Amino acid sequence: MANTSISQVSQIHSLTADFLKKRLAQNGFDDFASSHGNILFQLSINKTITMKELAAKINRDKSTTTVLVRKLEQDGLVSVTPSPDDRRNKILSLTQKGNEYNTLMKKLSKELVGKFYKGFSKEEIEQFSQFLERIKVNFE
């Protein structure tokens, strides 16, 4: 039973990732990894953030974060500027295109959640959320 559940979680992860990737491509945002979306989401919350702070928030090392951010900068989604206090530190922020991406993601997330919980009662959704939180805590 447990192995089946883990397989189901893996399948659902793959299906939701495919759903988002397809919808993003339909809206002109091709070639995105989930890590890119997480970076843009963090920037929408924090407005400006250092590379080091971002790496901690997305649970990646600084070199991986730098590569991911560089791609987003090349695509015009993120602005990278030297810190006025220490030019070695980089300050990240969203561009207009990055804000447009986040607006689209809010719409797609709503669509995804609707599809995900179709046919579930509010009580079932709450119970499911509690189960997921317990699983997450087991890994912390």
Residue-averaged pLDDT:
91
* Secondary-structure class: mainly alpha
Distance between the termini: 23 Å
Question: Portion of residues in helices?
Answer: 55-70%
Shape: globular
Instruction: Give the strand order of the largest sheet, numbering strands 1, 2, ... along the chain.
Output: 1-3-2
Q: Give the strand tally.
A: 3
Strand fraction equals 5-15%
Oligomer: single chain
Helical segment tally?
6
Rg:
17 Å
Order of helices and strands: HHEHHEEHH
Residue windows where pLDDT falls under 50 for at least 5 positions = none
What characterizes the major β-sheet? 3 strands, antiparallel
Concise account of the structure shown:
The chain is mainly alpha-helical.
Q: Any key phrases for this structure?
A:
single chain, about 140 residues, mainly alpha, three-stranded antiparallel sheet, 6 helices, about 70% helix, globular
